[in-house]
Amino acid sequence: MAERVVVVGAGLGGLAAAVVAAARGHKVTLLDKNPWLGGKAAVLHLDAPDGSGRRWRFDMGPTILTVPRVLRRIYAEAGRDQATELPLIRLDPQWRCFFEDNTRVDLLENVDAMAAEMERFAPGRGLGDGYRRLQAEAENLHRVSEGFFFWKSVEGMTDTLDFKANLNPDTLKDVMALKMGRTVAKVIRGHVPDARLAQMLDHYCQYVGSSPYLAPAVLTSIADMQAHEGVWYPVGGTRAVAEGLAKLAGELGVELRPGTEVTGFDIQDGRVVGVKAGSETIACSAVISNMDAIRTYRELVGGEPARKYDKKGFEPACSGVVLYLGLNKRYDHLAHHCFVFSRDAEEEFDAIYKRGEPAPDPTAYLAATSCSDDTSAPEGGEALYVLVHTPHLRPHHDWSKMFPAYRQKILDKLKRTAGLEDIEERIVVESQLTPVDIHNRYKVLDGAIYGLASHGSFTGAFKPGNRSKVVKGLYLCGGAAHPGPGMPMVMMSGWIAADSMDVDAGGRGMGERARQAGRRDRELAAAAE
Q1: ∠ at Cα 319 (430, 495), nearest 5°?
Q2: How far apart are CA 457 and CA 219, in angstroms?
Q3: What is the rounded average pLDDT for all residues in the chain?
Q4: Which residues make Cβ contacts (< 8 Å) with residue 494, sequence separation at least 6?
Q5: Which of 50, 53, 360, 461 qualifies as a FRET site for 486, CA 20 to 30 Å off?
Q6: What pLDDT, in 10s, does the model give residues 428-438?
Q7: For residues 438 and 444, is the Cβ–Cβ distance under 8 A?
Q8: Which of 296, 293, 281, 346 is nearest to 317 (CA)?
Q9: How confident is the model at residue 458 (pLDDT cuts 50, 70, 90)?
């Protein structure tokens, strides 16, 4: 068993890794350069300038929680019940969608109810049946993902299959189901050709900061995860997830050290034996890095391993502009989660992902948390979170000059398409993040919110593996490591990194309680019958 495990970075992935490693009996030290724990899952409080005591609370980073069984498994590793310690509220409708032609539609959890809503929205085109077929395909892709990709370290196809032992007819059938060579957009439009509804379904890809026109078909599985496992709001906001995991880590004996920046690793004979933090070197036998995987290799490892990963040509995912708007009005026509869609999906994604420029008419994601949580804003007000995806940083991008005009473009979009005509008059307090802020604040690659893009219809789902193949004792987690970005996947990556480390160290492994907690609800229901 490892004498000391050091976790670098206290984002959700790092916190999950620290909890699992400590729960399995390892001594864990968790370091983060920022004065808070939780990484992007930070909190922002804005006070009214008039001294009235009015306060607005914003989740600064992730706001949509899906696949709660990942959290269930992490808590179960420590013998705890997630539902008791970190209660969640199920949201339905999951999103409200606003389109340029002033139509609206809600994304509903129940597949049959959503199919009926599509028939109402665009009658006489058989879109309801098409949606059912899409969901059936997504369910199969989700099943295959569970078997090949999830809960284990993966960096390429050879990590998912034992070609000598596993290429039986059933396995070959599953490989074919992955539809390699097809994109998410192509799969969706093959079943739901309405441009508006397809645009709604495209945006599952935005969980992973990628274009549906470039992302592999397997990511369509997100549609099934959301339909069968729900969209959730943690009581107190998504910041409550970071706080809950940090509390649990502390109770398990993890040494928590915010405000400690890591500057390098001590690597001897190809194995990491220490972590450098200022003038201090912390001896260890394993490191789990929650820092961006490519920046980990470049800045903390260096040498040939860094050159190897640079040669792989991983592309940063998109970045974004976030507006935090404290309003003195609550808009009753908004749902907790809303998408205000661009006039043209191809134009938008082409600008962001191919031309590397902000979209001329962007899609805006809104979180109107007062719909579910009265504590996030003063009575009658709203803490409105507005996210617009932008390209990752390019050398010619100067957001200090670009931001004012793009902020106005976003507000004009909300006024024109989302029915928020008076929003500028309703802003009491305001803050923002730009791609430069995101790059500097979170040590991500070129300001990429979601780590690495999932582009490439054959291999786009693959990221750097959780168990390093070039440095012994080094493990990786977070949005730029397998299985990728999004709250549940980032926390799963932390679990995989800690599990891989524990297995390699001859540890106790996963217990039955945690094994059951991480199973899909459908599997548990079937087993109970």
Answers
A1: 105
A2: 10
A3: 92
A4: 12, 13, 14, 15, 16, 17, 18, 20, 74, 288, 290, 477, 478
A5: 360
A6: 999 999 999 99
A7: yes
A8: 293
A9: very low
